[in-house]
Write a structure and sequence with these properties.
The protein is an alpha+beta fold. Helices cover 19% and strands 32% of the residues.
Length: 244
Amino acid sequence: MNTSAIKVSVSVILILILVYLAFVLDMPYRSTVNNFVSCVAAGNQVLESFPRQCRDRDGTLYVESVATADLSRLIQVAAPVPGALVSSPVSFSGKARGPWYFEGSFPVTVRASDGSAIGSGIAEAKGEWMTLEFVPFTGAVSFTKTPTATGTLVFHKENPSGDPALDLSYTIPVSFTSEVVGSAPCVVSGCSSEICAETEMMSTCAFRPEYACYARARCERQASGSCGWTKTADYRACITTLSN
């Protein structure tokens, strides 16, 4: 075998050894980096998108699970502050990233500490909501019966898919005063007369065909004591017609 052939053989062997060593040495990394959390823990680059993404050293992207994301990165409530003493109606404000909204709004509920819902309302975006950035919101929600002295204000991520796996909510603990509206008649409001609440409320004016059926329902106090729609037989027949 001549000198050139020997050099080529040695070079090939060295390359194979280096490839083998690279594979063996990389195995511990590959066994630990297999999702967003482990990718971040390994010190890799995090892309500030929504949801966040981690780019590992060979370019593989791992996407953060929205369900485990830090909710303060998605929604921040300015008022009321945690533990605030509130009465009905309670006003709220803050900011949320665009994906928290749908058609410029998202639902808000008031719950007693026993878990019962005692009021519901809508948070309205105060700006263009079709963005990944934070968008301010404001709103108010009325509530009536307070079976407990404390409760929560719950800000729900709008979920038009209806898939429970995509539900997210941000909760603020509050205390209730004894001054609760409970005897005044319920009020129908909203651009399409689709809201039944303690006081007049604004809506996004995004019409949906089912809103027309509310004219056949009754806006009145429900068993919980809060205002809501009583879905009459005429209402149900209207909804059935729309779905056919």
